[in-house]
Amino acid sequence: MPKRDYLDDPNAPAPNSLVVAVGAVVRNADGAILLIKRGDNGLWALPGGAQDLGESTTDAVVREVREETGLQGRVAGLVGIYSNPGHVIAYDDGEVRQEFSVVFRVDAMGGEVRPSTESVNVEWVTPDRVPDLDIHPSMRLRIEHGLADLPTPYLC
């Protein structure tokens, strides 16, 4: 389902749903961060997606990492909670979502990096390459927080 993100845009449509989503900051021993190139909007992002009914947020982020990147993971901590009402996502089916996103640090525990139906590319990206990638500003903030190893989780 194609989507369009709006951030602090006075012409953005009004949200009609609130969905719990998760994101994963996965880093390797060299300090690179695992990013996906999304199939629905072509932008680079953290692996992640919506939490399903009947699962916890930590189970959801482990599942999303596995589905989108091929890696098995284990939750290692909390990067932050992102609930900016000025960030809405409009989908082709008429849903306009104010996303509530919980971003975790996730340790890779095995598996092999590969793209999926949701991620057309998966790469370990060194921090110096991140500024050159096409990333939505709301996602860029999450990535910056994940790379910064903040002493306390970000809350907004």
Identify the notable features of this structure and list them briefly:
Nucleoside Triphosphate Pyrophosphohydrolase, 43% strand, 10 strands, 156 residues, alpha+beta, seven-stranded mixed sheet, three-stranded antiparallel sheet
How many strand segments? Answer: 10
Which radius of gyration do the C-alpha atoms yield? 15 Å
User: What is the global morphology?
Assistant: globular
Question: CATH fold name, please?
Answer: Nucleoside Triphosphate Pyrophosphohydrolase
- What is the end-to-end distance? 27 Å
Report helical residue fraction.
10-25%
- CATH top level is Alpha Beta
Structural class: alpha+beta
Strand-residue fraction? 35-45%
The CATH architecture category equals: Alpha-Beta Complex
Helix count equals 2
Please identify which CATH superfamily we are dealing with.
Nucleoside Triphosphate Pyrophosphohydrolase
SSE arrangement, N to C: EEEEEHEEEEHE
Tally of domains: 1
Query: How can the largest sheet be summarized?
Result: 7 strands, mixed
Uncertain stretches of 5 or more adjacent residues:
none
Query: Overall pLDDT, averaged?
Result: 95
Structural account:
- The chain is globular, with a radius of gyration of 15 Å.
- It is an alpha+beta fold and 156 residues long.
- The protein has helices spanning 57-69, 137-148, and strands at residues 3-7, 17-25, 33-38, 44-45, 48-50, 71-82, 87-91, 96-111, 119-125, 154-155.
- The strands form 2 sheets. Strands 1, 2, 5, 6, 7, 8 and 10 form a 7-stranded mixed beta sheet that branches.
- It has a single domain (3-155), classed as Nucleoside Triphosphate Pyrophosphohydrolase, CATH 3.90.79.10.
